[in-house]
């Protein structure tokens, strides 16, 4: 059972993931060699010696990073309800003022400022919840941290856990105000007991702090899907607390060669699928070493944000959908009590819904309140049917939401006979 103070997560629906670290400097390329894998793994995949990698810190100087503008945009323009930043990724570098390890942004870089503190102040100012990503098992800088694709059998993982991981997690929970969640990742060989130690530590300092589905041994507070993997059906496990970490292109950390951006239309439809199936979409940006989000990504998120902010009522705090028996191209549904939201993502002159048995008391365009004419009837075959006329000025347009006010509390979808 979740505490009252954790319920925000179920309603949030859309959050911002930020993968930012020393890998952003390499941007997918080391000494002329490009990585065709996710950019934050470059140290691992291109086998960069630790001493070499550590030297990158001397170049980290993100003078263009503006936490205030970053958070303001995420909240107001993109419609995101929470932000999760990599406090320490697998590379082992702390993006904050850590007393536990000097391999951190304050001690080891010319920039010398605490990124997390700046983010905290901005999140508090704009009322955005803040969580931290922390790689609890993999630490490629610590001799006893795990490293995927290498022999870890001689490592004293407990030593790493006691001397780096837990003390750093404690710092995160004690020095940055209220942390909405810790996003542990890639638990690898962490044992049940070690996972419990981490959980106990977090809950002893901040009992309401949620733990991601990758805390270890499936002992987290919610379910985290595989990266970019969307459950095909509505999912109500974990009391409906779940989240999809996802990318806009194919990498998490910045890669200057990765221009495989999803379109804004595609992201809007993914968001609506996730929301209707009951989950949260944690969508990632990978800032450059200067501290800015690539312009192509900003443009996409601005377009998505326009839809999200104009139709927030049909997204935040909505309930998991029952299964509608048909897949209608360009249509997604979300709902709350007595309301069915029909998201129209491709142009049409009429919305026709078959096998629906509800009575409708009102139909309108959600963002403007413009009322629509509609008919509730039975098809020639005897199936429930609702038809809504789309006004002329919207013919040829896409990405708007029709709200159907229902007499009944829930949608009544009829099976195909
Ligand atoms: O290895 C990480 C990867 O770098 C990234 O942080 C993603 C985000 O979900 N998690 C791991 C892979 O699943």
UniProtKB/TrEMBL annotation:
Entry's Gene Ontology cellular component terms: lysosome
- EC annotation? 3.2.1.51
Coiled-coil residue spans: none
Name of the top EC class for this enzyme: hydrolase
Which GO biological process categories is it annotated with? fucose metabolic process; glycoside catabolic process
Matching Gene3D superfamilies, A to Z? Glycosidases
Q: Which GO terms describe its molecular function?
A: alpha-L-fucosidase activity
Give the keywords, sorted: Glycosidase, Hydrolase, Signal
Q: Which residues form the Glycoside hydrolase family 29 N-terminal domain?
A: 3-313
Q: Which Pfam families match?
A: Alpha_L_fucos (PF01120)
Q: Which InterPro entries match?
A: FUC_metazoa-typ, GH, Glyco_hydro_29, Glyco_hydro_29_N
The Swiss-Prot or TrEMBL record describes its family as follows: Belongs to the glycosyl hydrolase 29 family.
Q: According to its UniProt entry, what is the function of this protein? A: Alpha-L-fucosidase is responsible for hydrolyzing the alpha-1,6-linked fucose joined to the reducing-end N-acetylglucosamine of the carbohydrate moieties of glycoproteins.
Name the UniProt record assigns to this protein: alpha-L-fucosidase
Provide the species name. Candidatus Blautia faecigallinarum
């Amino acid at each position: 059972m979740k505490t009252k103070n954790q319920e925000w997560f179920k309603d949030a629906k859309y959050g911002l993931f930020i993968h930012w670290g020393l890998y952003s400097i390499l941007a997918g390329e080391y000494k002329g060699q490009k990585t065709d894998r996710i950019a934050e793994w470059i140290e691992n995949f291109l086998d960069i010696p630790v001493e070499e990698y550590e030297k990158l810190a001397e170049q980290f100087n993100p003078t263009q990073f503006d936490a205030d503008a970053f958070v303001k945009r995420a909240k107001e323009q993109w419609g995101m309800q929470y932000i999760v930043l990599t406090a320490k990724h697998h590379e082992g570098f702390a993006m904050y003022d850590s007393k536990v390890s000097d391999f951190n942004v304050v001690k080891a870089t010319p920039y010398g400022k605490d990124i997390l503190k700046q983010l905290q102040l901005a999140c508090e100012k704009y009322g955005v919840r803040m969580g931290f990503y922390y790689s609890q098992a993999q630490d490629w800088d610590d001799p006893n941290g795990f490293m995927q694709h290498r022999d870890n059998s001689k490592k004293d993982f407990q030593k790493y856990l006691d001397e780096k991981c837990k003390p750093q997690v404690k710092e995160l929970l004690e020095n940055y105000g209220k942390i909405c969640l810790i996003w542990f990742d890639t638990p690898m060989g962490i044992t049940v007991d070690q996972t419990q130690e981490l959980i106990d530590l977090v809950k002893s300092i901040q009992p309401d702090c949620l733990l991601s589905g990758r805390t270890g041994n499936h002992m987290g507070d919610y379910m985290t899907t595989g990266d970019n993997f969307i459950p095909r059906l509505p999912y109500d496990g974990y009391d409906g607390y779940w989240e999809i970490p996802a990318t806009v292109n194919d990498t998490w950390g910045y890669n200057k060669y990765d221009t495989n951006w999803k379109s804004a239309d595609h992201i809007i439809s993914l968001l609506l699928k996730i929301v209707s199936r009951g989950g949260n979409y944690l969508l990632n940006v990978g800032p450059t070493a200067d501290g800015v989000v690539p312009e192509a990504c900003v443009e996409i998120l601005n377009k998505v944000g326009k839809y999200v902010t104009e139709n927030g009522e049909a997204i935040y705090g909505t309930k998991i959908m029952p299964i509608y028996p048909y897949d209608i191209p360009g249509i997604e549904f979300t709902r709350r009590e007595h309301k069915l939201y029909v998201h129209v993502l491709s142009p049409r002159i009429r919305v026709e819904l078959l096998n629906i048995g509800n009575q409708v008391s009102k139909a309108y365009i959600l963002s403007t309140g413009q009322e629509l004419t509609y008919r509730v009837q039975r098809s020639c075959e005897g199936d429930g049917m609702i038809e809504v006329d789309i006004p002329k000025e919207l013919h040829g347009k896409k990405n708007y939401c029709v709200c159907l006010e229902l007499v009944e509390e829930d949608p009544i979808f009829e099976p195909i006979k």
